[in-house]
Write a structure and sequence with these properties.
Two copies of one chain form a homodimer.
Chain A (H helix, E strand, L loop, with lengths): L19 H21 L12 H12 L9 H4 L2 H37 L12 H34 L3 H16 L18 H16 L1 H10 L8 H25 L11 H18 L11 H13 L12 H16 L5 E2 L2 E3 L1 H28 L4 H12 L14 H27 L10 E2 L5
Antiparallel strand pairs in A: 1-2
Helix pairs in contact in A: 1-2, 1-4, 2-4, 2-15, 4-5, 4-15, 5-6, 5-7, 6-7, 7-10, 8-9, 9-10, 9-11, 10-11, 11-14, 12-13, 13-14, 13-15, 14-15
Bound molecules: potassium ion (2 copies).
Chain lengths: ~450, ~450
Amino acid sequence: MQKRAARPNGFPRKRFRFHPAQIVAFGFAGTILIGTLLLTLPIAKVGPGGATFMEALFTATSAVCVTGLIIVDTATYWTGFGQVVIMLMIQIGGFGIMTFASVIGLAVLRKLSLRARVTAASEVKSVGLEDVKGLVVGVVRISLIAEGVVAVMLTLRFMIGYEEPLGRAIWLGVFHAISSFNNAGFALFSDNLIGFATDPWICLPICGAVILGGIGFPVIVQLRKHLRSPLKWTMNTRLVLVGTIVLLVAGTVYITALEWSNPKTLGPLDWPDKILVGFFQAVQTRTAGFNSVDNAGLDSATLLGSDVLMFIGGGPAGTAGGIKITTFAVLFFILWAEVRGEVAVNVFGKRLSRAVHREAITVVLLAVFVIMSSTAALMVMTDISLDRLLYETMSAFATVGVSTGITAGLPVAGQVILILLMFIGRLGPVAFASAIALRDRRTAYEFPKERPLIG
Amino acid sequence: MQKRAARPNGFPRKRFRFHPAQIVAFGFAGTILIGTLLLTLPIAKVGPGGATFMEALFTATSAVCVTGLIIVDTATYWTGFGQVVIMLMIQIGGFGIMTFASVIGLAVLRKLSLRARVTAASEVKSVGLEDVKGLVVGVVRISLIAEGVVAVMLTLRFMIGYEEPLGRAIWLGVFHAISSFNNAGFALFSDNLIGFATDPWICLPICGAVILGGIGFPVIVQLRKHLRSPLKWTMNTRLVLVGTIVLLVAGTVYITALEWSNPKTLGPLDWPDKILVGFFQAVQTRTAGFNSVDNAGLDSATLLGSDVLMFIGGGPAGTAGGIKITTFAVLFFILWAEVRGEVAVNVFGKRLSRAVHREAITVVLLAVFVIMSSTAALMVMTDISLDRLLYETMSAFATVGVSTGITAGLPVAGQVILILLMFIGRLGPVAFASAIALRDRRTAYEFPKERPLIG
Ligand SMILES: [K+]
Ligand SMILES: [K+]
């Protein structure tokens, strides 16, 4: 039994009037609004007139939430100005979510360690402005370094392999580097990256940036410090790294095997290209949303497997979406402990804190509820098949951005649902999990214990 | 921390050489085998020759697991002998699952109460043969009474409303009473109960039997004893009753609203008939599997909502399938506790035992895994759309028996998957949950605690 704690959730009262989640939600909404206004300007759109409000709102939300779903073609509908606005929104969205989730993560971990030594009151620390500044600087530095390296690689390739003039090659390199490190999936080609499907010099740097952005800031920081001493890695780092490798291998095998002889996707390719494209697709489906085959041609079973990859997503406190690898891993280890008949849920030699079980379950249940009800609503509105609609809602919620091409054709109400899904999917899991983890629990008194039958 | 317990899981060693779940699995498999052999006899099939092994195996599995999926028409393919065999298998399957789950439930509850007063060693009790005998007698008595009442009602209606001769009316009454109380969904009409869609004198007694069988033996026993003193009801009874009402109302509203003007289903009916059919469909979709409209004509969104109803299913230790209302309710109350920020998960003024959280999660995760992988496998094998395949696998796993009519056309491998799903779905959740609940947990030592980031 636990009493009402005097100290509020690790954040000093005077510095934050709002909960950080509220600040970030307002910040995201504000950025989307500004982006929407900029995109409705006539100079943002090719040809006469400006974009409609809905086109601008959808694009801005998709960019700030680093999703990549589009209802107008990024390459041909927007001018250079419009594309720069999109790129900046992606960068702001990426910075925002990484910083926010890292601050929240720090607060959660500090709260836990405080609980463990609750008597040492002098050691009470909270997350102050200095910490936030430090995190912002770290996030910006790592993002710019990663984006810079990938931008140079892509620029060189666009110059050498595709004879683009220097200026355009740099622009393409920078845009796609930012879009990939931030897991946004926006591309400056009307067919996304299908034109580069068999070019590893384009595909692999983009995959590298996507994976790096997707494992999350805390893991990147730890790898920089302790790359060669895995014994020092936290449970978070281990789960994210192992989970990433498992999902990449399983995803590549699943997609490549199912699409191997599909004439609309991998069928016409040689076998090394099949594997390259299968791997690319597995990397992108987890969270980034680029595509090097036409997703509309994928087999239904591939779509279903992709839904699972999207739902799980990437690492926490990164640019990836979904419920996060760690959340999924917690459920897996609970299951494993039950199957093996163990009292505690142990993960790589550490005991999993019990509070985390319920956090993970709650995030998953809410995510399932949101996705299912959105899908049902879209089914009522349209005649599109379940596999495509589920792929679309999963893509929006997990801020992935892949689509079988139905986005633009949805009714306005359907597009509004996707906008809400992107926003909720981007901020919801981390905000909700942190709200649970940081809250001071209250118990009036304990009820007597009882249990129903299960199964 | 908990030591290895000396006493094994509540069952005395000498009386049971196998775990009860193993005995029941062998029993079910044996009954299916005998039924299969009987159904391959030429006297079981109309016309020359006998049924194929696959037809007989599928039908026997569907009957013993009280599912109701069929690949040949019960009404016209089987002779009276074959139909009697099916009826007997339904009855044996229903008795079997109710007794098994009740015995298991008793053992789980006794183990829990023993733990609560672990010092009182003299009070140690286990589930012995007398208990099992008592439960069997109780199950048989309640089943026969309920089936008898419904059989009489149906027989009268078939005589009076449809001018069936006495013998045939009794046969129809008995068969459909057994099929409905045991939630089997087999019917002796080629269009199932579509011909009686607007006849409340047929539909409502069948719904009553289905609901009664589906709330489970422990709830029926408690209602008989303490109908008028709800304060004495266990958490199990409360959850099942409240959950049943909520699901029936929500299901009726959802289905009726979505199908209201669908020309293939409720469209042509008057509004009172729309509501009757919608209610009937909501009752049947949860677990029994009769249908009074053509399921193939249902809207995709209705199929998706039906999937949810099927997945949840009915009460534990009854003839219903699915993960069970209680399992779903546990997840719901965990979510609710997290949203409200409470330390303990409280259900109707009782604290939910913590072990139950992990039991419920484990059952749900395994169920999702089994259903998803079966669905993906069927998607690879066929060109059928996801909404129909998911409806089919959910129907098999939750032993519901509704179908959009694709069962007979599936390849043999697909039908084998459905057979396995019916068997696993019938015994899996209760066997797995009980194995978890009854096992003596072992802990070598405790690891230090740590947590990853969630969301
Ligand atoms: K994305
Ligand atoms: K059934």
